Amino acid sequence: MRKIKFTLIILFFITSSLGFSQTDMAVISLSDQNMLYTLYPNEVIIGNNGGYKDYKISSDNIKITKVKGTVNSYLLECEIEGNQQLYFIDKATKDTFDIITYRFEPMPLPELYYDFRRNGEKINYSYSVNLRVNYNESIPLIAKFDIIDWEISIPESPTIIKGNGFQLNDSATSFIKNAPVGSDIIIRCTYSYKGKLNKTSSIFKL
Amino acid sequence: MIKVITTLLLITSAKVLFAQGIVQNQLSILYRGFENKVELGSVNGDSTLRLAGEDVIIEKKFNHWIVKPVQGYKRATLFALNKSGDTLNKTVFTIRSLPKLTLYIGRFESGEKITNFQERKLMVKMPFQCMIQPETKINNWKIEIEGEELISGNGDFLFEDAISKLTNLKIDTVITITCNYSINEELKTISGVFKLNL
How does B174-184 read in b/e, with b if 16+ C-beta sit within 10 Å? Predict the structure, then answer.
């Protein structure tokens, strides 16, 4: 009987310590950095240092979604620029034990690429060209942008070639083919992210 | 008995006073030459965690840590350790230089063309993409054209007289705005250059 009791106690300690290591994930916060991006699903890890084990986060204007398969990761999304509050609420007492203010700023402007050429780079004539709108490697955001429409021009000519979608049409490619070597090719486009439209542009050297 | 109750009350009030929600923003970065403030917490509210790191200098302050990246590195790793020394979080942070404070008129940043005066508030801040925005307060300002003072004022707002003088200027006129401002109780001066395109 004693042996069983002893085994049970040992088992309890092993399982509880395993449980501790699995669920008690720590959170490292650079607490002065309170900026998040509007529209973007900003991923955060939530915790506290006050011994609260059963608590929730809530907000008036931030959409909060728990990341599946994680203990305490959440996506914070907000459409409104400016300050928004995130409340930490103890589930048992309903007390708010902390409020963190976040500053929501618009997402940075992505770059317009001519195939894989960046703003300021040299390009050659090609009969088939895809335009892309992406972030360069210095911006740590992962976002998919859709190109709605575009227009191409050169400073020396009043002609503007327009089109829709991400692919340049025949008029655009022949416009580039006939442009003088060394011309600045200006491409502007309207892109969409989560249904919101915005504009970006790039200049390429022919 | 009273001693026990007092101790319990002290523990409870300390918990209420110091309990903080801790959020790790996955976009956070460590700024070079800056005292990055780090706080630790855990899902279960552990308050006994400690911070360790690679390629950083760490200094403990009251209930947080100051982390300074070591020169020459592009990334640094921070670890949150429990009492037993187990690592409960290991995160690699990108290191960047802290941008300079810049003068803004509403949304127009120094160096830009001003196309309207819908927003007339002067602000000294980091570029909006910067994760940190220190608190600053503009005390007074003056507007100059080629070194000649056009108008000056107190506070952080371009008043009506200034706007009417500016809107009467020729297109492409370059104006310099100089502001005295306070940051961390220190007085400083900043200038911004704007081209008018009204």
Answer: ebbbbbebeee
Compare B9 and B193 and report the one with higher pLDDT.
Answer: B193
Q: Which CATH architecture has domain A29-105?
A: Sandwich (2.60)
pLDDT tens-digit map of B123-176: 999 887 788 888 899 999 999 999 999 999 999 999 999 999 999 999 999 999
Closest by CA to B45, choosing from A16, A74, A58, A46, is: A46
Can you read off the two tokens belonging to residue A149?
Answer: 């429409």
Q: Which residue has the tokens 């350790």?
A: B81
Q: How many CA atoms lie within 13 A of B66 on its CB side?
A: 8
Among B43, B61, B67, B78, which would you mutate to test the A interface (most chain A Cβ atoms within 10 Å of its Cβ)? B43
A48 at B interface, C-beta within 8 A: yes
CATH class belonging to A111-205: mainly beta
Q: What is the pLDDT of residues B70-124, one digit of tens each?
A: 989 999 999 999 999 999 999 999 999 888 999 999 989 999 999 999 999 999 9
Interface of A with B in 143-202 (CB under 8 A): none
Its CATH architecture, for the domain B102-196, is: Sandwich (2.60)
**Separation between Cα atoms, residue A169 and residue A184, nearest integer Å:** 19
Q: With a cut of 0.95, is the ipTM above it?
A: no
How is chain A split into domains, by residue range? 29-105, 111-205
- For domain B20-97, give its CATH number from 3.90.650.10, 2.60.40.10, 3.90.226.10, 3.30.365.10: 2.60.40.10
Q: Which of B24, B30, B56 to mutate to test the interface with A (most CBs of A within 10 A)?
A: B24
